[in-house]
Amino acid sequence: MTIPVETRQATAYWTVSPGKGELRTEELPAPNPDEAVVRAIYSGISKGTEMVVHHGSVPDRVAERMCAPRQEGDFPGPVKFGYLSVGVVEQGPKEWLGQRVFCLNPHQDRYVVPVDQLTRIPDGVPSRRAVLTGTVETAVNALWEAGPRLGDRIAVVGAGLVGGTVATLLRTFPLARLQLVDLNEEREHLAKEIGIDFTTPDQAAADCDIVFHCSASQEGLARSLQLVGDEGEVIEMSWYADRTVTLPLGEDFHARRLSIRASQVGVVAQPRRHRRTTGDRLDLAVGLLDDPVFDAFLTGSSPFAELPEVVRGLADGSLPALCHVIEYPASTAEPKPDKAETNKNAR
To answer: Average pLDDT in the 169-196 region?
Structure first.
């Protein structure tokens, strides 16, 4: 299959300077034999990280480490950033043609990518829901890091996209207690949708075996140290970017021999690093999305042409969202309906 001349250009979203983004047109390179041309259907906005990039808040010290897998440009900008893209292979090796795929690619309507950076989407996973693959991958990595055990008491502090996804996966574990903790009592609705006990920080149960902290606030981290039991562990999943965090380490931390361990999706968690690749982790993540409960995290959608305005709305808080989905013109012309979407429409 050869790409028509009129489609050899691509449009992508760039953060051009702190607080400003725009759509830019660029030439689409010819693919090599081991590459594919992907036509985007949907992409998702990872609000926490992408707002850090939008505000130009990536610290210089870790800028190289925090690059997205297929990022172009450098922080603070101009930079093409993003990593929740779902599309269809238009051109490439025969076995990939027509396949629905997830890719850690920025917001772009068409792109050329090595096929070993593509993750096939199972038939039972709707394309729109598949944008959450990168977020579920982050949650899987944290669970590998923490290693929850039978009968554990666990709290997830911060009911945003990442915290909610971690709690959603944990709800299938044989735990003694699982609570989703957030200051925003409106998040109780989300907790009910995913079938998890919700509580506010002041009402949360203490003596936890593990606390996953996902609120990106120093208050949330301080409360996590209070909620974890003696010699317990807090798994820190928040990225504070260039903000300084102050903790009351003179209280619980030393007296109760607590631990804070970072979890970051850039590498496979140490307990699984020698037996799992990042590709294995992505395959696991996209397979877990056959559960319709994850639709609770898709809280809005907008056409690709409106992406600059959407990012501004997310940044100033006028557009509340967990995961906001960007729809590309091709989203109305998928190659074939997948089973999950067909079943959903039948209901």
So the answer is: 97
| Residues 289-314 pLDDT 10s | 999 999 999 999 999 999 999 999 99
The length of the chain is 347
Percent of the chain with pLDDT strictly greater than 90: 88
Domains and CATH numbers, the chain: 5-125+290-338 (3.90.180.10), 145-268 (3.40.50.720)
Distance CA 155, CA 226 (A): 11
What's this model's pTM, rounded to 2 decimal places? 0.92
In whole angstroms, what is the distance from residue 11 CA to residue 26 CA? 6
pLDDT in tens, 325-344: 999 996 655 655 444 444 44
Regarding beta strands 153-157 and 208-213, do their DSSP bridges make them parallel or antiparallel, or are they unpaired? parallel
- Cα→Cα distances 42→12, 110, 214, 330, Å: 13, 11, 25, 9
- Give the integer Cα–Cα distance in Å for 68 and 219: 28
pLDDT tens, position by position, 202-235: 999 999 999 999 999 999 999 999 999 999 999 9
* Region class of 137: left (phi > 0), else alpha (psi between -120 and 50), else beta: alpha
Measured CA to CA, the distance from residue 289 to residue 171 in angstroms comes to: 14
Where do we find the tokens 């779902």? 86
**150 burial via Cβ count (<10 Å: 0-12, 13-18, 19+):** exposed
| Tokens standing for residue 98 | 């027509």
What is the percent of the chain where pLDDT is above 70?
A: 93
* 270/144 Cα distance (integer angstroms): 8
Q: What CA–CA distance (Å, rounded) separates 130 from 270?
A: 26
Backbone angles phi, psi at 246, to 5 degrees: -110, 130
The packing angle between helices 47-54 and 307-316, to 10°, is 100
Identify the pLDDT of residue 2.
53
Contact 57, 117 (CB under 8 A): no
Cα of 167 vs its chain's centroid, Å? 14
d(CA 236, CA 281): 20
CA 156 to chain CA mean position, Å? 16
- Residue 124, helix vs strand vs coil: coil
